[in-house]
Amino acid sequence: MSNKILFLYFKQKHKTELMKCESIIKVLFRKFRKSVVFSYMQIDTSSSCREAFMKVLFEEINRHHAILIKGDTESFSEERTLFKEILELKASEHHTLGKVICSPAVEKTFKSSDNSVSEIYTASMENLNYAAELSVKLSRSRKHLLTICTKPENIVDTTLFHAVEDACNKSMHINSEHISFDRMIYLCTKTVPSFDTVLATEEISKVISAHLDASARICSGHTVLHTERGKFYMSRTSFAEEMSNAHFASVLLTFSEILYEEFNMKNACDWLRKAVATSFETHAFTPFDEFSNKVISEIQKPMRYTR
Predict the structure, then answer these.
(1) Which listed residue, 67, 116, 228, 278, has the most CB atoms within 10 A of its CB?
(2) pLDDT tens profile 191-205
(3) CB proximity list for 185: less than 8 A, separation 6 or greater
(4) 229-274 residue pLDDT tens
(5) Region 174-198: what's the mean pLDDT?
(6) Cα 261 to the center of its chain, rounded Å
């Protein structure tokens, strides 16, 4: 049976980028003697088409084994509507530089009057507990190290801290530590960060991710979104990376995570990551065709087996 992959995109240019990456991915599947079928669907978060779009989207989600979303910095508002209102986001994990930052989904509302403006953060206990348990699960599958970064003066942070304490108490062999937000930023900017899995609120997570992304050599990593409708993978690139082949590399590296997590194809995952990293070293700023040909040639190299 073929592996069915759904590509979701916001703009036509995103679909073009995905289709270019599809040809590379098909070469990889042929090498590992697996079959794959790709489908494409444009995201429409407009209020006039919301109900019809949701019906079709949910049907497509049920038909596919994995879903990858392609967006960019210009589609931020559409992303927020998709994740928070349509898919009902519970928690997210951002992977970059070999590290992962987990955070629960929160709702942010604003109130204003003639004399003041205020922000109100609302986080359900279900989302806080889900993010805490997710961070412990990721720690258990990685280096058994969990770093918690919260602000003690914030009630959402404090509640999240207590939730992860309970989750850690139920899990064996997890080494956890709590560090302040200021200390975390210092570690990200002044040293080689020693932490592995981080649990933080959404706002803190964005700041940590931004600092780590700035040091990334290839691309800004990827995000895994845990929603009421399942798990979604999203490639990420920064402003500067749009000028190179990094946005293509990001899609391919995000797909390598799908190979590992959803299809249990660890060898194919490692082979694709190696091919992309090797090609990006010499073809970061070449025309895409040259970058693509290089990645394909790396994929098609014979695999050497050693005892």
Answers:
(1) 67
(2) 778 899 999 999 999
(3) 207, 208, 211
(4) 999 999 877 665 667 898 899 999 999 999 999 999 999 999 999 9
(5) 89
(6) 13
**How distant, in Å, are the alpha carbons of 5, 21, 101, 120, 161 from that of 37?**
6, 13, 31, 44, 42
Instruction: Give residue 220's pLDDT.
Output: 64
Residue among 114, 194, 201, 196 nearest 161 (CA) = 201
Q: What is the CA radius of gyration of the chain?
A: 20
Report whether 295 contacts 279 (CB < 8 A).
Answer: yes
**pTM value > 0.90:** yes
Q: Which residue has the tokens 């970064």?
A: 149
Which residues are 91's β-sheet partners? Answer: 104, 226
Q: How many CB atoms lie within 10 A of CB 174?
A: 19
